[in-house]
Structures are given as C-alpha cells and as structure tokens.
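The following record pairs a protein chain with its ligand, copper (II) ion.
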Amino acid sequence: MENGFLPSTPEITNQTGRIITLWNGAWIAAIVVGVITWGLMLWCVAAYRKRKADNKLPVQTRANVPLELMYTIVPLLMVGVLFKFTAEAAWEITDNTAEADVHINVVGKQWSWDFNYVDDDVYDPGVQAYLTGEEGVEETLPTLYLPVGERVEFTLDSRDVIHSFWIPAFLYKEDVIPGITNTFQVIPQEEGMYQGKCAELCGEYHASMLFNVAVVSRDEYEARMQELRDEGYTGQIGVDEYSRDQVVRITEEHEEEDA
Ligand SMILES: [Cu+2]
C-alpha cells in the first residue's frame, strides 16, 4: 500500500511521505509485536492445558528476576523506538525556521473560517456552510487557495472557542486556540481540490465548519487574489473583528428558511 490506507499519497505535500512512512512503520512494528504475543498466548493455552488424570497443582513460581527484567526492559525498548521515530518526524514536520513564500492567517470562528492572505493584503470571510444533506454543498463552502510548490506558512487564530484546522489529505492538523497563535508550514505539491474540516468539537454547528482547499498554479492563485480585491475584500480581517452575532444571524436565517 503506497499510502497505508490514509487519505493521501506521499507526494501531496512535502510532509505526507514522511507521515505515511511513520504510520506504516508503526503498524508493521505493532503487527510483529502482536503476532509474537498472540503466538505465545496460544502456545501457552495449548502446551499447558489441563490434561486428563492431571489433578495436581502446577509448580507455584513466585519471583523470577530474569523474567521480570525482560518484561520491564522489552516494553521500554519498544516505547523508546516508537518515541525516537515519532519525535524525529515531528521535529521535521513542525520545523518553522524556513522562510515562507506565502503567509496565510486563518481565523477560526463559530462556525466557519476567515482566510487572510497576508502577502496580498486581501481576505476571504467564510460564511457558515448550510448542510442540507443534498449534493452541491461543496460549491457553497469557503475555499482556501494555495499556490502549488510554494512554502506556505499558516498562522492560526481563534475568535471564540478552540477549533482545529484540518486538511485530511495533508495528514496534518493543528489546534486553533483563543489567545494563542499556532504556526505551521507546508508545501502543497499537487494541484487539486481538497477538503478541510474543523477537528475539535466547538459547538452546535461544528459539523458545518467545512472548507475547500484549492491547490492551484501561481497564475490562478494571483487571479483569485485579484478577484478578492475586485470584490472589495482588501485589508485583513482582525481576530475580534467579524462579530460572532453576524455568524449566528446567518445560522438563524437558515433556520427560518427551514421553517
Ligand atoms: Cu470548530
């Protein structure tokens, strides 16, 4: 399996290959340990089963120092190996020291996302998705544009409660916490449309916090920036700016439509 059943491929971002390798390695290690453990259990059940006319108690063993050392050291080794590979991968993935080409500030809000394109000084205020259960919802979702092959630095802010910014195909999510700005970098490597979600239960319409991610060419990216400029979305939308009432009002309007 190239992707270990994950919703991604090694090429989608500069990080997905590393994450898939870690995931597959952890599964292989777990299966090896599992097979040995299950095998020993079954062997004990079969080899030491009670036989006919065997009515004595088995030998009663109390302490066995070599055995106790073994079952202390072996799990420590296993945890140590898992820790080493996980920590190495995490260091590399969360390394933010490189100079980014594109800076995007995401503001999570109940229940959508605002996208500030910092370098182009435009923004896209996300309107909460209205999930009817019918097809075609994708077209109504806010869409985040990213230029392919460029290093993107995300800064994540929240206007209200804790959210989590998640693009499943990128195999990475990061919490969006009020009062704290989290940062990560990624290089999207394949053009296409991806899905984004909130991965932290954040209230009644948490499930509506969907967005699209369009990884496009530099030209298409700039065309989108111009589009936002033409629509009047110049400047940046502040963390406290877009009132929560406005979003709640949108929700209520939808509810009236339903009624
Ligand atoms: Cu949320």
